[in-house]
Amino acid sequence: MVKFKKKCLEKNVAVNCKTKKQAKQLLTWATSKGFKWCDGNSYPKNTGWDTYGENVCYYLYEGMYSGNIRANKGKYKILSFKEALKKPKIGYYGHDKFDGGDSRSSEWEKQRKTRGFDDTELWSLGDTIVKFTLPRLIAFDVDNNYVSLIAGLKIFIRDKGSRIWSTKESEQVHKALKELGPVLPYLWN
Fold first, then answer.
1. Is 62 inside a domain boundary?
2. Is residue 51 part of a domain?
3. What sign for the dihedral angle of Cα 76, 79, 189, 1?
4. Which of 6, 108, 120, 130 is least enclosed, having the fewest CB within 10 Å?
């Protein structure tokens, strides 16, 4: 599931979705946080996107939507879909900045500036690749075509690379890894 900044759920904040796919992703996430339309219905049942198209703005706090004209006239801060997205932390240890708590921090920071990644991402390169790929694959899979692939990859990165899996989980992981190669050329949006 695509994740968004908590700010999207605040009062006086609207999120503009330019595509129906974006709307579904935003509303699925908001539903997972317990939000619904103001009439009590679930978001995914009616995205409301067809009413306003690329001008739709969602007011998740109020459980409403409208065209961006209403939002512009009102007291709302309008976030684009891109601005609303929560940026994934892609380093193996999940850090964006180095706090100096490790003697290698300054070297890692230098590596990120010069080559875009640091040695912490090489410790378990398979985990790093899957951690980077999985959220994008989930966002891509609006039609649920890759459910078993996603489930297997989630198991793969669970527990920071411990690889302690049941026999069934091990089979799921190996099946997912076999599925990934052949579909890579077709993951095109």
1. yes
2. yes
3. negative
4. 6
**CA distances, 156 to each of 127, 128, 133, 175, 188 (Å):** 7, 11, 12, 11, 23
Give domain status of residue 99, yes or no: no
> 10 Å Cβ neighbour count for 11?
10
Alpha helices in 40-166 (DSSP H): 49-52, 68-73, 81-84, 105-115, 125-140, 147-157
User: In which domain, by residue range, is 13 found?
Assistant: 6-84
Q: What does the alpha-carbon distance between residue 102 and residue 128 come to, in Å, rounded to a whole number?
A: 20
User: For residues 12 and 130, what is the distance between their CA atoms, to the nearest angstrom?
Assistant: 36
Pairing of strands 13-16, 56-59: antiparallel
49-94 confidence digits (pLDDT tens): 888 999 999 999 999 998 876 666 667 888 999 899 887 554 544 4
Asked if residue 105 is part of any domain, the answer here is no
Tracing tokens 């010069």 back to the chain, one arrives at: 114
* 101: DSSP letter: -
